[in-house]
Amino acid sequence: MDAVTIYTTDPCSFCARVKGLLSARGIDFAEVNLTKDPAGRLELVQKTGMMSFPQVVVGDRLVGGFSELLAAEQDGRLEQLLSGSDETQPPPSPAAA
After folding, report:
1. Which is nearest to 38 in space by CA: 55, 51, 49?
2. For the chain, what is the radius of gyration of the CA atoms?
3. Of 16, 26, 58, 62, which residue is the least packed, with the fewest Cβ within 10 Å?
4. Is the separation of the CB atoms in 8 and 31 below 8 Å?
5. 3-state SS assignment for residue 59
6. Considering only CA atoms, which of 58, 48, 52 is closest in space to residue 6?
């Protein structure tokens, strides 16, 4: 199983939601709280291109924030990411009618 890292800050309700979602599913994670770490924030931006919190990374793949994690959990991509599967592409968009 690939390691899960959550980049957080205080206060952050979505950070708490991400941790709750993962904990409820029995998924272990490492939390990196960047509340008082400007250098860590810069490193996060360089690593992910994102400046918002939380940011969830599985292995070396950016999942995103709470909404993206929830969507990945609901459509099965999270399980694929955790298992290290290469089939982590999002489902195709519905064709425009």
Report:
1. 51
2. 14
3. 26
4. yes
5. coil
6. 58
